[in-house]
């Protein structure tokens, strides 16, 4: 193990360039999966299974996903600008 990068920051290799990502797709797919699982849990709860906790978790996942989509909408320019600066 080399200690030079730990002791001397100038001896470190440069970090990798940030990847350009589309968070809208990621958040939308995740929220869609929570919605699908929520529908499945709702059907199971209606048919008499005791999955109320799972249904609440799915609803929380959908709420968080919607909030992340809103955040992404307002901050898209910022995170894309930061990724383009380092390339």
UniProtKB/TrEMBL annotation:
Keywords: Membrane, Transmembrane, Transmembrane helix. The chain crosses the membrane at residues 26-46, 52-71. It comes from the Bacteria. This is DUF2530 domain-containing protein. It comes from Bifidobacterium margollesii.
């Amino acid at each position: 193990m080399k200690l030079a990068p730990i002791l001397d920051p100038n001896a470190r290799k440069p970090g990798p360039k940030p990847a350009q990502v589309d968070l809208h797709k990621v958040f939308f797919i995740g929220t869609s999966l929570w919605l699908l699982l929520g529908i499945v849990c709702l059907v199971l709860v209606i048919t008499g299974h005791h999955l109320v906790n799972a249904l609440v978790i799915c609803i929380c996942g959908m709420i968080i996903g919607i909030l992340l989509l809103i955040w992404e909408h307002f901050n898209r320019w910022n995170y894309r600008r930061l990724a383009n600066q380092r390339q």
